[in-house]
């Protein structure tokens, strides 16, 4: 949620990117140093020659090793991806949605929170425009990821940029940003990123399939729909570290509950917008206070890192 009001800081650092620490997910420090963006050079001779040594399926041994490193970096987060996919998949047959349509959504959208919001809006008989608008608001955080990952992807061929952009989830984005200093060579870097992003999306799709298959046989007494708010809580709580996050969440929750009588699930949109406005105003006030005290102001790259600690 804090992504939208964090856009105010884009003008502050047009030519820098925050260097994320190499420690695990959740260790991001908003006071991290800033590294000037430099024009990436050509791939190193070592990385080029490595592609031809011990190649398997046309992929060099070094590239396989880098991809394996990416997989190991993101592996602790994969159970959450499976569970989220299971929650979405179980809702598909429960609402009478075609199974292939639900599966196609997981492959093409790759954004669990927005997919579930669309399904929930349809269950509330909301117009399609409202369902889509809610999903777009939730996915607006990816604009920040693009700003932070642009320098990381800048040396990649176009086909890699497009492919990896589609595979970027919250978790894949933060892992990529945390290890950018470890892989200065763009060839090795892109294989590290695809090694984490591709399997993460794959287990999300597998979870969706499992949910679609198991959904019809899950007893109603299990209240599978309750997984949805639980997953939202699991996604949001680890990233709530700043006062403006707390303010935005509190206002959103209060408005969603107070406006629950609105038709078509409009209380969700009203709550999100109210939380964004409240969080933005509070953040601007907090930034002004920090500036008066000479304290650090968060950059757009740091904001993207912070948001990426959230969820899929």
Strand percentage, roughly?
A: under 5%
Give the biggest sheet: 2 strands, antiparallel
* Separate helix tally: 15
Low-pLDDT stretches are 1-39
Distance between the termini: 13 Å
Whole-number mean pLDDT: 75
Describe the structure.
With 312 residues, the chain is mainly alpha-helical. The protein has a domain at 1-9 and 55-240 and 298-312. Helices cover 64% and strands 2% of the residues. The chain has a two-stranded antiparallel sheet. Helix 5 runs antiparallel to helix 11. The protein is flat and about 65 Å long.
In short:
The chain is mainly α and 312 residues long.
Write the layout of secondary structure elements.
Layout: H1 2-6, E1 16-18, E2 34-36, H2 45-50, H3 61-74, H4 78-94, H5 99-108, H6 112-123, H7 128-139, H8 141-153, H9 158-167, H10 170-178, H11 186-214, H12 227-236, H13 243-258, H14 266-292, H15 300-308
Antiparallel strand pairs: 1-2
